[in-house]
Amino acid sequence: MSQERHELSVYCYIEAPRAIVWKVWTDLKDEWYCPKPWRAQVIEQDMRPGGRSAVQMFGPDGEDTGPMEGIFLEVVPGERVVTTDAYAAGWVPQTPFITAIWTFADAEDGTRVTATARHWDAEAKARHEDMGFHPGWDQMLAQFKALSETSAASA
Q1: Which of 39, 3, 5, 7 is nearest to 128 (CA)?
Q2: pLDDT tens for residues 97-135?
Q3: pLDDT, position 122
Q4: Which residue among 37, 78, 109, 110 has its CA within the 20 to 30 Å range from the CA of 19?
Q5: What pLDDT was estimated at residue 1?
Q6: 3-state secondary structure string across 67-94
Q7: CA 77, CA 32: separation in Å to the nearest integer?
Q8: Between vectors from CA 55 to CA 138 and to CA 91, what angle results, nearest 5°?
Q9: Contact between 21 and 14 (Cβ < 8 Å)
Q10: pLDDT-based confidence at 3, cuts 50/70/90?
């Protein structure tokens, strides 16, 4: 069975240089990482293989996701970031849900961004779809695009 059957992806073209898009991804995640009116708080982002990735999301009615923790598997500055929630920092196993893959590539006069959620099985993929992968990740990526383009215009 092809792994692609367990993937969900969103794509966008951003009218900004890849260096600015990368800086927004790494430095401004609190501002775009979850669909508004929810907000995200980066707890830790140790961007190296094995480094901790921890984000918490807060809803408009007091909802709190608690820390969503994982690790970075791969970081190629300006090109690719791969994280997974299958482990907490220190390679502590936890119940896996996704491996997230972000890619950044030059395209025309801007940057092409792809965000992929790779799931372990069809059930996890279906659960993510039911949770609202679309439109949630679509809105998150639109927020990321807008912030990147605003950052480029003011640079």
Answers
A1: 7
A2: 999 999 999 999 999 999 999 999 999 999 999 999 999
A3: 94
A4: 37
A5: 44
A6: CEEEEEEEEECCCEEEEECCEECCCEEC
A7: 19
A8: 115
A9: yes
A10: low
For the chain, the residue count is 155
Based on C-alpha coordinates, what's the Rg of the chain? 15
Does 37 have pLDDT greater than 60? yes
Which band of pLDDT confidence, cut at 50, 70 and 90, is reported for residue 4? low
Contact 149, 15 (CB under 8 A): yes
Give the separation between CA 80 and CA 6, rounded to whole angstroms.
20
DSSP state of 106: E
Query: Is residue 54 within 8 Å of residue 68, measured between CB atoms?
Result: yes
Going by C-alpha positions, the residue among 144, 133, 150, 146 that lies closest to residue 25 is 144
Which residue do the tokens 């073209």 mark? 13
* Residue of 47, 44, 42 lying closest to 32 (CA atoms): 42
Other Cβ atoms within 10 Å of 25 Cβ, number: 21
The partner residues of 81 in beta bridges, in order of sequence, read 75, 102
